[in-house]
Amino acid sequence: MVKMKKAVLFLFVIYSNIFSQYFSGGFNFYLSSADSSSQKFLPNFPVTEIGNDNFVVVDNEGHFSTEGKRIRFWGTNAGADAAFPSKSVANILVGRLRKFGFNLVRMHHLDNPWSPKSLLDKIYTRQLIPENLDLLENFIAQLKENNIYVNMNLHVSRTFRMFDGVTAYDSLPEFSKGVNFFDPYIIKLHKEYAQQLLTHVNPYTGKSLVDDPVMAMVEITNENSLYRFWRENKLKPISKDGVLPVYYSNELDEQWNKFLTTKYQTTDNLRAAWNKGRVAFEEGEQIDNGSFEGSRLKNYWFIEQHNGAIADTSIDRTISHSGNRSFNISVQTATGTEWHIQIKIPNLKVIKDSIYTVKFFAKSNSDKDISVSVMNDVSPYNGYGSSAFKLTNVWKEFSFSFKATETNLSHTRLSFMFGKEAGEYWLDDISLTRAGVAGLEENENLGNKNVSRMDFSACNNFTNQRVKDLSEFYISTERNYFKEMIKYLKDTLGVKVPVVTSNWNTGMSDLAAMSDGDYVDNHAYWDHPNFPNIPWSSTDWLISNTPMAKENGGVIPGLYAGVPVSGKPFTVSEYNHPFPNQYQVESVLFSLGYSSFNDADAFMFFAYDEAQDWNRDKIANYFAINRNPVLMSFFPSIAFAFRNGFIQSSVNPITLNYSTDTLLISPKYDSGDWRGFSLFDSKISLNHAVKVGKYFDSISSDFSQLPAAPTNNFVTDTDEIHWDATDGTIYISADKFNGSGGYLYKLRGKRAGNMMIVEAGANDFGVITWLSLDGKTIGQSNKSLITIGSKVQNMNMVWNSTNTSINNNWGSSPTLIYPLKVRLDLIIEADSIKIYPLDTKGNENAFTSYFVKPYQPNHFIFDIDQNLLRTLWFGIEKYGEGNPSDVKSSELIINKFELHQNYPNPFNPTTTISFTIPSSTEYYSVLQNVSLKVYDILGREVATLVNEQKPAGMYNVQCTLNNASSGVYFYTLKAGTFSETKKMILTK
Based on CB atoms within 10 Å of each CB, which residue in 240, 739, 746, 847 is the most buried? Predict the structure, then answer.
């Protein structure tokens, strides 16, 4: 993990100054929230109502289908307020969703506690608010009429209140997560809510959701896992730094002891099983002067400071846990990322398969989070163990244990990480020892129901069987909850569509706990904002503002590697590169490419919105895409390609199997990496799709026989997706879709299918996609669409560094797009092509359209300059053999230089000048040295509009004379021996 983060630091230093902050010279491309029209050069998603028998099911191939045909969903999320649009807005909103390619909306945070737009009352959450339910059901009816399905979430953010009858309601973990898996009363309330929501008859459709095929799938609980809570050491009382009120901790203890009694019956049987492998020693203290009573600090403890984080260290002679001294870390500047400040001892040692325990006392000036890890201090920076802790202003003892995965006798390091929050921290009595292995403790017995549940981080201090039993208890408890809910939904309520358990898993054990669902789901974000002090603040936030294209795998392996399950549909219900990351446009290629390669059945961007911010021309939060003109402009092409399966799935997928024993003993080998425990290098998934077997009780795969993981140049086994993390580029070359993205200059000469970038700005970062619109391969298509986009910002956004804005200064309307200028080489089977810059609805602009002739058979070179054309969409129509147009291609040959009369004329202060450059059959001879200049009536040069080499084609150049006086002006085109001058009139 630290190795990856060091790589991110390196990239940040090199690239942030190039492409991270506010840019000038942008253009606006406002996409109306009321636009549901259809156009010739945009994909067509027709208005067809979902039929009454079109229920989504899982077919024999393990995919979603309706009426016997596979269906893929390109979706988005409507969160909180956005799920309750007014009736005057709903039909307009839905029409726009359909136009831009969405055929699924995930209804999220319907049960939220923070907004008036919620299904649940703020005082008594056991009743639905009729007015809001009516808005939701009207929205669903409108979606149904537009052939857009619904993903219905049940438990997301419900927060219990006093009158709900929930014990310790005001002390539960956020949204009562975790406790819902084992508390009978809360489970009862979950069922009650599902019944209220899913069986209520929608007055606009005449059907309840359980009987309406508009509901494509049901999600039981969002981002919720009992196993994850254990893995994060949270399943203990709040007083012991857990998240459980005492009532629920005792309830879980009682269920644990009941589980053991059922399995072992007597304490003697339990002791016999648990004491196998017991080791009674503890030895080998490695920390010299861990109490800081001596003077050793310099050249023993070292500090790392990254990305602008600043801290000082010293011996504190006034505050200590024991003795007279402690170690003080004073963090002046935090970045929100823990590893940006590390206090470490780098010359320790571990021996493979030995158990070690880290213990220390710590406090802070206020409640703060830190992380502690033991790892290799040199490449390849393998992690051995880690844990996270919450400090208070009172001294507390903390500990975790780990099993060393290798022998490292000189470069093992113990690191304390403080970069998340500024403030004062103190450490004392630090210890790293080789630990003993305990079984059943002397005072524990089943008769007294006092057998304790260990922390996940302490698993290596206990025998294998004790660890396996606690793993089994948590996994089975979670599975039993899901089984009970699925049975209730299907057998009692009559749900007919696939049901998923939860999402955002932490590896194979979580997958096993969630394995009874009909499909599998996962979430991922690149550069999700960090909030150092105030959760979800719009002012107190930090991002790294780096491109995933430059990262060695990014979040893609964690999203896909070993998460899809053979024989079941796979979905991604949340994904984004949140704003204001200036590289977020890359997300469209990563989402389309790797979801298709992994044969996903649905992909959902988070979120269309979580407010009702439909019309404002401003990006107002991290995740909303509806007001983001760059992302929205790509979605028609991306959705069309995904829904129609234009990108090939893996041809050599790998299926992994896990035995029950492997699952249950895995805490002994878990280093605590936030991405979850894995027995293989997840980057293998960048070459081959990696799935897991449907059942988690088979013989484990031989993981040593897996292919080697790639390093920084990732090519899928289909040869359609190429990702070069060194150059920061990705391209997709499929028959009906081509895409190039990242640092475009690095893609010069690399052909993405039929498309190649000939020239691009040296530091420009963006994405170019090319889509066939008529079902033919892209080189034969009569109609196709090119979309080009780069970074986006609001007017007057203010940044105080490369990775944060200040004072909530997100700027104002309108949004601005960074203009790209690129030269493309397309292979199209045609005598000529016509390029149509499209307006914000996708309509052709006849005046700015132009023809291009090939520089050699079927090869077309032309420039796209968004400074002039100010659009992201370009329709392409081909002319030649087989084209149905009445226009004869021979009439379109560009065989001479021409300078056309400007339009409008007279003008004030902007006009457009068109000219043509003749074709040539030689590649280099087609590049002409061209100049276009404006002169006043005295022959003095007023403006240079063009002065560069250009290939054959027809060009439109804007001329703006803001500071010139009214009168007659002349413009002259020169290219080689050709020269022509025309007159124009400026009137003010």
Answer: 739
Phi, psi of 590, deg, nearest 5 = -65, -40
Could you read off the pLDDT of 760-817 as tens digits, one per residue? 998 899 999 999 999 999 999 999 999 999 999 999 888 777 666 555 788 899 999 9
What is the rounded CA–CA span in Å between residue 417 and residue 341? 6
**In which band, very low, low, confident or very high, does the pLDDT at 539 lie, cut at 50, 70 and 90?**
confident
Strand pairing class (729-733; 737-743) = antiparallel
Cβ neighbours for 24, distance < 8 A, ≥ 6 positions apart: none
Q: Cβ-count burial of 745 within 10 angstroms (0-12 exposed, 13-18 middle, 19+ buried)? A: middle
Check pLDDT > 50 for residue 822.
yes
pLDDT per position as a tens digit, 582-605: 999 999 999 999 999 999 999 999
675 pLDDT higher than 70: no
Tokens in use for 25? 């010279």
Per-residue pLDDT, 62 = 97
The model's pTM: 0.84
Closest residue by Cα to residue 897 from 952, 849, 846, 942: 952
CA atoms of 873 and 407, how far apart (whole Å): 57
Nearest to 834 by CA among 869, 884, 886, 782: 782
According to CATH, the superfamily of the domain at 302-434 is Galactose-binding domain-like (2.60.120.260)
3-state DSSP of 928-940: EEEEEEEEECCCC
Name the residue ranges covered by the structural domains of the chain.
55-232+489-647, 302-434
Please name the residues in contact with 308: beta carbons below 8 A apart, sequence gap of 6 or more: 333, 335, 340, 801
Q: Which conformational region is residue 846 in: left (phi greater than 0), alpha (psi within -120 to 50 degrees), or beta? A: alpha
CB 328 within 8 A of CB 319: yes
The vertex-37 CA angle with 735 and 613, nearest 5°, equals 105
Measured CA to CA, the distance from residue 259 to residue 393 in angstroms comes to 38
Residues whose CB falls within 8 Å of the CB of residue 326, separated by 6 or more in sequence, listed in order: 292, 315, 316, 319, 320, 426, 427, 428
Establish how many alpha carbons lie within 13 A of residue 848's alpha carbon, considering only the half-sphere containing its beta carbon. 21
Separation CA 627–CA 927 (nearest Å): 40
H or E stretch covering 725? none
Provide mean pLDDT across the span 314-319: 93
530, containing H or E segment: none
Assess contact for 190 and 155: CB atoms under 8 A. yes
Cβ atoms 157, 149 nearer than 8 A: no
The residues near 546 (Cβ < 8 Å, ≥ 6 apart) are 8, 11, 12, 15, 16, 527, 581, 583
Q: pLDDT tens digit string along 470-522?
A: 999 999 999 999 999 999 999 999 999 999 999 988 889 989 999 999 999 99
Give the CA distances from residue 761 to residues 744, 746, 754, 823, in Å, rounded to whole numbers and listed in that order. Answer: 7, 10, 21, 10
Topology classification of domain 55-232+489-647:
TIM Barrel (3.20.20)
Report the distance separating Cα 841 and Cα 827, nearest Å.
Answer: 27
Pairing assessment for the beta strands 310-316 and 326-333 based on DSSP bridges: antiparallel
pLDDT tens digits, residue range 131-183?
Answer: 999 999 999 999 999 999 999 999 999 999 999 999 999 999 999 999 999 99
Phi, psi of 425 (to 5 degrees): -130, 150
Order of strands across the sheet with 104-108?
A: 499-500, 215-221, 149-155, 104-108, 73-79, 602-609, 570-576, 520-525
Between residues 912 and 204, which one has the greater pLDDT?
Answer: 204
For the chain, what is the radius of gyration of the CA atoms?
31
Task: Write the CA distances from 195 to 119, 159, 178, 181, 489, integer angstroms.
Answer: 13, 18, 21, 18, 8
Beta bridge mates, 646: none
Q: Are strands 832-837 and 821-827 parallel, antiparallel or unpaired?
A: unpaired
Residue-by-residue DSSP string for 610-657: SS---S-SS--SSS--TT-HHHHHHHHHHHHHHHTT-SPPPSS-EEE-
